[in-house]
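Input set for joint prediction.
Command: fold jointly, output tokens.
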Amino acid sequence: MALKRETLEGLLLDHHFGALPTETTELLDAYLEGDPEARMVAGELTATACLARQALAREPVAGLPKPRFSLPREAVTPLLGARVWSPWFAAAACLAVGFVLGHSTFNNPAPKLNTARVSETVVGVETTRKTSSNSFWSVNNLRQGTNENARLPAYTVVWDSPLKKPHLKSVL
Amino acid sequence: MEYFWDSMYRQVGPDLLAYFTRRHGEVHLAEDLLQDTFIQAIKQDERVRNAVSSRAYLFGIARHMSQEVFRHAVQSVAEIPELTVPAAPAVDPRLEAMYQAIQVLPPAQQEVLELRLRHELSYEEIATVLGIPVGTVRSRLHLVMLRLREDLRRAGND
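tokens >
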């Protein structure tokens, strides 16, 4: 189906000016491939636009003068404006990130660290068992005491009256 | 690191200068208008930054400034004088014909053509600058292009 001349020219101009959606551009390209006359029209319009562009660019332009006023210097890009990246905002962002990192670290200690602590304790106990003396507060003394106590017969204190002396009574 | 307004002045400044020079013909006046445009734009800092196209917004201010000058000179916008800047002689006769054809276009058509082809503004940006619907920009531009094509054909036949 042939396009009307006006429609075709409109589409070609929009295409040249980059105002045509991609899908329509593809359809137009396909149409141009099958229609030599339409291709000729497209060539004419493109040539006209190119010449007009050149003609407009012919005029001499003076060099850009230095601004006679001070340009504000708050922001880097139009996309991320000055308000967003103000120093206060940056400081608040740093604090927030630090808090989150710190919180997650203290709530979830690394498992490797726990392993290291356990093995250290075990090694420590072993070392103590082998090398420590049998002093009053030594682990060996405590262990021995516990074992000996376990082997001793069990007694209970019997104190019938505050006027009498208490005495021990075997419970076995 | 480049600051927003430095970047705007460097990127849009030359185009605005060309725009003023073309409309008013005097380089010194064009430079003054360029400075005034930026002073005005900086006052509207927030709006310029948040505009869909900061470039189009600046062109809009520039156009307003230019119209003010014409108004003060007791001239209507419709009577914007045609280009007075002397152009270098064209070697290509087709280019010369095109140049002449553009000179005799109505100011409104010249303006839309210049904004699109010289300053590379999109339909939407031109609509913002001129304060007209996008459809009007499109139809106006199409009309100009078809007219220029006919002028070229005629010049080729002569």
